[in-house]
Every structure is written in structure tokens, then in C-alpha cells.
């Protein structure tokens, strides 16, 4: 792999209010992502995926360890990282164009009106939103709102794009379309990306690598699993990729061994209490596949339905 563009070194974090018992969450996370690569963060509910993303975003500080973007240590929020979070952060009173314009003006305050507009149109065009420039978020479908969020995050030309369960609330067809669009955009822009997801298929589809966080026992190290499938994959044909089923089984097996950290343990032979793919499981074991433990195949519950959005704040890596 070429030199890491996003580097996470020994990241540790314990949550805790003054009068509450401390909650150790991250106990030494390491990750190296090259420029243009996509890393997905997967793991049972409560294992610390969003905490990791917030640390990379600079929205929280670590107890130990460090995050580097393009060689500079992250010390706070910055416009070198574009955020697309679960909850909507579009300004409801602004049009599609103005939501993106707001970000571009913050990023390049000296740009002329014309230059800002042209830049916004470029990114809104990349996500096919030119026909709805004047609409407000309430007048858009969920998928369109998420496209605005992606366009807004990308419009500031971040070094790293951070997505927290970006497509979880969408129907499978819209979700698949947006996943493919994201893959195309990242390839076009050589965009480095960190994606938190509950969805095994999404992790395999998008990721060059998967950071699997076990969550329990506390202090267990995260595992980095290379995806290793052909890069030009698409959501609709992922299940036909050689090696897909074996990797999916492996990930589901690990997930099923690691229940939600603060949820109930899974019952024997059941997927209850674990995060797993919300996409229908395929039934396509091939000669390449390894069947899961006991020869069984488990299907997880659909992930909770998040939404998306967000934009990096002021500041920067230092
Ligand atoms: N600000 C906070 N203060 C105290 N505890 C927190 C805080 N933020 C998160 N936690 C706890 O840290 C643990 C990890 O939370 P986090 O949201 O990072 O997990 P997650 O893997 O993203 O979960 P999910 O998949 O359910 O979204 C949880 O037990 C959570 O309750």
C-alpha cells in the first residue's frame, strides 16, 4: 500500500460524566488508509464506531493516540474533513444551492459570487441535483437530501470524507444507487473516505478495507480485514463477485460472536442483538465460499434507520 493519507495511531477513548462510571470505548485503534481508498468501520452496536469517527473529525479529543491527515495531526474540527452524519444537518430554510453555497463560502470566503456558484453547480451536478437547485430540503426525497449532504461535504474538497451510516434510512434501490454514485465520485475525485456502517454488504461494497471493532471485551483490538474483491464492483452485482460470499460469512460470523456491547447477548443460533446487514442475504454459496460455524447461515436484524448530513466546522489540522 502507498503511504497512509489518513493514519490512526493507538487511539484510546474512555467516555464518562463526572459522577458516572467511566466507559472505556476505544483501546488502541490503528488504521492506515492510502489516498483514494475507502475504509469502512463495522462492529456491533455500541462498540465505538461513531466515537472513532468523531475523533477523526476532531469533534472529540482522544485520551491517547493520534490521527493524522496528510501528515498533519488532527487537533480539532477542520475543513480538511467533510462530514456526512446520521442526522440531517441541512439548513431547512435554505435552498439546495444555498445549502452548498454556505459551505463553499465558508471554505473560500474571498471567492467571487460567480466562482462560488460555478463551484456549487459542479458538485450538485455530480450528484444529479441541478434540476432541484431552488427547492428546500422539505421538498426533497430522503435520497435527494442525502445527495445534498454528500455534495456539500465534497464541495469543500476535503482531504478525507467521513460518513456515519449515510444510507441506512433509504429503501434498498435508492440505497444501492447512492452507494454506486459514491463509488464513482470517490474514484473520480480520488477521495479518501472513512465510512461507519452497520451493514455488512455496504462495508464489502464500498470498502478497500474493513476495520472490524469488536467492542467487547473492552480493550480487544480492532481487526483490519482487506476486502480484496475487484474494485469496479456495483451494488446490484456485488453478490456475484468471486470471494464475496466467503467474506460476508466471515464478517457475519465475527459479528454474531460479538453482540451489541450494551445490548442483550444473542440467543444461540439467532442474530438477535447484533448488527448485521439489512440487505437480503444471498443464497449463493459457491466453491469459493466457506460456510459459517456449524454450517449455519445467520441473518441479522436490519440496522437502525439513520439519516445523514453534516459539514466540518472551522479550524483545521495543525
Ligand atoms: N458522550 C458520551 N458520554 C458517555 N458515553 C458515551 C458518549 N458517547 C458514546 N458513549 C458510549 O460509548 C459507547 C460507544 O458509543 P458509539 O456511539 O461510539 O458506538 P457505535 O458503535 O457507534 O454504536 P451504534 O452502532 O449503536 O451507533 C456506547 O456505550 C455509548 O453509550
UniProtKB/TrEMBL annotation:
Q: Organism's domain of life?
A: Bacteria
Q: Which SMART domains match?
A: AAA
Keyword Nucleotide-binding belongs to the record: yes
Where do Low complexity bias regions lie? 300-309
Could you cite one Gene Ontology molecular function of this protein? ATP hydrolysis activity
Q: Keywords in alphabetical order, please.
A: ATP-binding, Nucleotide-binding, Transport
What sequence ranges are listed for the domain ABC transporter?
6-240
Record's keyword annotation contains Nucleotide-binding: yes
Where are the stretches annotated Disordered?
266-318
Q: Which family does it belong to?
A: Belongs to the ABC transporter superfamily.
Protein name per Swiss-Prot or TrEMBL? Nitrate/sulfonate/bicarbonate ABC transporter ATP-binding protein
To which species is this protein native? Acidiferrobacter thiooxydans
Taxonomy of origin reads: Bacteria, Pseudomonadati, Pseudomonadota, Gammaproteobacteria, Acidiferrobacterales
Amino acid at each position: 500500500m502507498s503511504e497512509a493519507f489518513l493514519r490512526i495511531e493507538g487511539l484510546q477513548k474512555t467516555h464518562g460524566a463526572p459522577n458516572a462510571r467511566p466507559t472505556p470505548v476505544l483501546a488502541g485503534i490503528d488504521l492506515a488508509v492510502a489516498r483514494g481508498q475507502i475504509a469502512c468501520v463495522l462492529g456491533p452496536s455500541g462498540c465505538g464506531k461513531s466515537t472513532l469517527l468523531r475523533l477523526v473529525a476532531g469533534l472529540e479529543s482522544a485520551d491517547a493516540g493520534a490521527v493524522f491527515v496528510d501528515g498533519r495531526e488532527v487537533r480539532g474540527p477542520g475543513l480538511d474533513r467533510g462530514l456526512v452524519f446520521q442526522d440531517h444537518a441541512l439548513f431547512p430554510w435554505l435552498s439546495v444551492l444555498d445549502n452548498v453555497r454556505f459551505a463553499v463560502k465558508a471554505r473560500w470566503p474571498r471567492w467571487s459570487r460567480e466562482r462560488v456558484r460555478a463551484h456549487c453547480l459542479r458538485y450538485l451536478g455530480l450528484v444529479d441535483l441541478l434540476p432541484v437547485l431552488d427547492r428546500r430540503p422539505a421538498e426533497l426525497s430522503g435520497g435527494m437530501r442525502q445527495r445534498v449532504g454528500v455534495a456539500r461535504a465534497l464541495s469543500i474538497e476535503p482531504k478525507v470524507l467521513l460518513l456515519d451510516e449515510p444510507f441506512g434510512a433509504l429503501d434498498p434501490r435508492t440505497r444501492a444507487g447512492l452507494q454506486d454514485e459514491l463509488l464513482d465520485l470517490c474514484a473520480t475525485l480520488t477521495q479518501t473516505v472513512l465510512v461507519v456502517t452497520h451493514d455488512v454488504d455496504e462495508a464489502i461494497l464500498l470498502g478497500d478495507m474493513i476495520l472490524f471493532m469488536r467492542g467487547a471485551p473492552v480493550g480487544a483490538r480492532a481487526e483490519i480485514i482487506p476486502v480484496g474483491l475487484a474494485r469496479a464492483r456495483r451494488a446490484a452485482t456485488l453478490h456475484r463477485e468471486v470471494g464475496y460470499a466467503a467474506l460476508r460469512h466471515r464478517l457475519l460470523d465475527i459479528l454474531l460472536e460479538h453482540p451489541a456491547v450494551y445490548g442483550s447477548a444473542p440467543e444461540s443460533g439467532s442474530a438477535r442483538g447484533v448488527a448485521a446487514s439489512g440487505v437480503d442475504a444471498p443464497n449463493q454459496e459457491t466453491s469459493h465460499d466457506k460456510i459459517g460455524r456449524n454450517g449455519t447461515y445467520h441473518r441479522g436484524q436490519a440496522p437502525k434507520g439513520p439519516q445523514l448530513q453534516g459539514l466540518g466546522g472551522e479550524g483545521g489540522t495543525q
